[in-house]
Amino acid sequence: MARILLLEGEPNIRRLCREELLEEGYEVVAAGTGWEGVRLVEAFHPDVVILEARLPDTSGLEVSRMVKGTDRRVRLVLFTHCLPPRDLRAVGADAYVPKSWDLEPLKQTVRRLLS
Fold first, then answer.
1. pLDDT tens column, 57-80
2. CATH no. for residue 104?
3. Could you tell me the end-to-end alpha-carbon distance of the chain, in angstroms, rounded to an integer?
4. Adjacency order of strands within the sheet including 48-51
5. What single-letter DSSP state applies at residue 88?
């Protein structure tokens, strides 16, 4: 079973995403802050990290760099309202999905990264 770490500061979006990903059959751990997420990467060893670019305590882009520094095999998805960086790889991200209540694009991206 694939493991997903979801880093999202907004509790309602975090809960909805977690529920949808659990229904897809993934093991999911969610956190509301970047620093909590960095600690969880080391403890949970996720296959995919989904993160918001603007977390309450730090930038999701900074978290992306730290996560890739910890484990280069983990796949990172920026799930945000912010515009994507021109070079996703430069910030450590493997994919960008515009944040929306329609979570199908996010689920498709996760499936693609895990295949």
1. 888 778 888 887 777 789 999 898
2. 3.40.50.2300
3. 12
4. 27-31, 3-7, 48-51, 75-80, 95-98
5. G
Q: Provide the domain count of the chain.
A: 1
CA distance 83 to 69: 23
Instruction: Write out pLDDT tens, residues 4-60.
Output: 999 999 999 999 999 999 999 999 999 999 899 889 998 999 999 999 988 888 887
pTM: 0.91
Domain span at 63: 3-114
User: Which residues 6+ apart lie within 8 Å of 26 measured at CB?
Assistant: 1, 2, 3, 4, 110
DSSP 8-state symbol, 83:
P
Which of 81 and 90 is assigned the larger pLDDT? 81
Residue 10 neighbours by CB distance under 10 Å: 15
DSSP state of 84: P
Q: Are 49 and 37 in contact (CB under 8 A)?
A: yes
Structure tokens of 56? Answer: 């309450």
3 state DSSP class of 67:
helix
